[in-house]
Sequence to fold (579 residues):
Amino acid sequence: MNCIVCVASVPDTASVIKLKADGTGIDESGIKWIVSPYDEYALEAALQLTEAKGGEVTVVTYGPAGAEPALRDCLARGAHKAVHVLGGEKTLGDSFTIARVLAAAIKGRAHDLVLCGVKGVGTDCSQVGQMLAELLGLPHVAIVTALEVGEGSLAATREVEGGKEKVECPLPALLTCQKGLNEPRYAALKGIMAAKKKPVDKLEVSSLGIQEGADLFYAVARFELPPAKSAGTIIQGENDPAGAAAQLVKLLREEAKAI
Amino acid sequence: MAGILVFVEQRDGEIRKASLQAVSEAKRHGGAGGEVTAVLVGAGIGAAAAGLGAWGAARVFVADNPALGLYSAEGYTEAVAAAAAKAQPSAIFVAGTAMGRDLAPRVAARLGVGAIADVVKLALDGDAFTARRPIYSGKAFAEATTAGKRPQVISLRPNVFAAEESGGSAAVESLDGLGLAIRAVVKELVKAAGGELDVAEADIIVSGGRGIKGPENFALIKSLADALGGAVGASRAVVDAGWIAHSHQVGQTGKVVSPSLYVACGISGAIQHLAGMSSSKIIVAINKDPDAPIFKIADYGIVGDLFEVIPPMVAAIKAL
Ligand SMILES: Cc1cc2nc3c(=O)[nH]c(=O)nc-3n(C[C@@H](O)[C@H](O)[C@H](O)COP(=O)(O)OP(=O)(O)OC[C@H]3O[C@@H](n4cnc5c(N)ncnc54)[C@H](O)[C@@H]3O)c2cc1C
Ligand SMILES: Cc1cc2nc3c(=O)[nH]c(=O)nc-3n(C[C@H](O)[C@H](O)[C@H](O)COP(=O)(O)OP(=O)(O)OC[C@H]3O[C@@H](n4cnc5c(N)ncnc54)[C@H](O)[C@@H]3O)c2cc1C
Fold:
């Protein structure tokens, strides 16, 4: 059972987002980089599968040199190998270009299962996995919260509005992993030491036949911060909760017209 | 290439509200200088097709096939790609439901183009859209384009665009001869107990956080949600504590919602929670701490004990 896990290195979700003065992008100073939280579920699923069935976990990222700590983190948790496609500065949120790069990097490497997160937090597109599946000619199951892998096939549960879909699918396949699938492990000291010796295959995008920035599929004309909100109507309700409740319901009805 | 093709989602033959919103938005933009065409996919669903005319579709392709009864990314991609080959649209709209968010990127990759996800505003310049989408879970917005590529595949966040009838009728054509090769097969759709309304679809959401003290008190949250006809949401703290299922979680690592009314009860308003609900139209906070960050983005709020505030609120709503 060989698994390939796609991990994005993203700004810590607690980061305060500031814009560059000219609005052309996000001010990255002071941002801490982490493995995108959903990709941790993908990695954990792959580790559990290979522990049970043998085979290797290869983590792949497409990102600048600064993405290497994320890869090392995955190796420290138990991934066997890593592939680092260097670049990505011009393709932030360009899901299709990212998928093309990942597809080129993955083709030719043995995979029974390709695992992604449901979304890269930050750019929040939730697209790369499905696009990658199409480009690799694989079936996919997205938003997976439960998984059983058998001989040559898998059964997965995916989250949809108001319920769950039970899906069966032959291998090889691609999954996008959601919270609930498992409890990701942390790296232990021993793993961190071992990770230093594990191989990271570094590739230039151009070696995959893709000219970064030459053929974009997504471009941001402008970034903006949300408009500042004016102060709301706050009712002091400690002494007369029932009165406050009645006043709130009246405001929601008559002023906000929300109920 | 001209016009807008809209993928229309149905469940049990009933068209989803979010899809009517997408058809209406396509119509409001005059079909980007062409026709608004819809594509409806499923099994035994033909009867719903003609009605789409009233919402602005001039033409409806129907892919009615027993193999398409339950959603399949591969099967539905085939159907939408076939409709796109016929309609040659300059844009493809998809409602950003769980199904739409799954389908749109696969369709885009099939057509060899990119896609713009989770759009909250569209501006038409000539026949090309610039799409506003929240990033960093709403901490910022990007005005995005497809860098000149066509068709522009765009998923629209549900409940943001209005559904409006424009009157009119649609020509219905069946989409036959699809080369269906479905590998990932949905065997079963398990509906949540009691037909519970999902936060992602709800127009009103009442959420509970750690301030509700224990799982049993979700009954209180539910009583307010029921009085308002809304769904029950939750903060991550209470999901992690096992008080309620993750499908209720609102926030950066839960669902991103934009209902017309969001009521946060006993939720402090951590940045990751705000990320999931700050685009709600009206935000109400009930919290006993006057300095709780949730009050900074609340349109209305009560500083007080939720156990004392919610019961009279329910009574007042019922008395309306
Ligand atoms: C300066 C800089 C800032 C960045 N900031 C962000 C950020 O805020 N958020 C973010 O997600 N990424 C960030 N990245 C990495 C960026 O290239 C992402 O890959 C891209 O923004 C994710 O796009 P998306 O939203 O379409 O991914 P999604 O479609 O949401 O991603 C879904 C899944 O696809 C896989 N995936 C996505 N991108 C990659 C990748 N580059 N390598 C391997 N697997 C991937 C992951 O499994 C992910 O869970 C940054 C990169 C740079 C150079
Ligand atoms: C990577 C990451 C992702 C995250 N994603 C999410 C996410 O998706 N969604 C999310 O919600 N969080 C998320 N979090 C967690 C987030 O940071 C907060 O910890 C969480 O939102 C806190 O939940 P809470 O407001 O219910 O609890 P608390 O912060 O403990 O707040 C409880 C509130 O209840 C009030 N209260 C107490 N008693 C009463 C009473 N009797 N009446 C009225 N008010 C009362 C208190 O004043 C307080 O404000 C994430 C964190 C990380 C690190």
Notes: DSSP finds eight helices and 18 strands in chain B. The first helix of chain B runs from residue 17 to 28. The pocket of flavin-adenine dinucleotide (ligand 2) is lined by residues A 13, 37; B 209-211, 235-238, 249, 251-254, 266-268, 270, 272-273, 276, 286-289, 292, 305-307 (CB under 6 Å). Chain B touches chain A through 94 residues (CB under 8 Å).
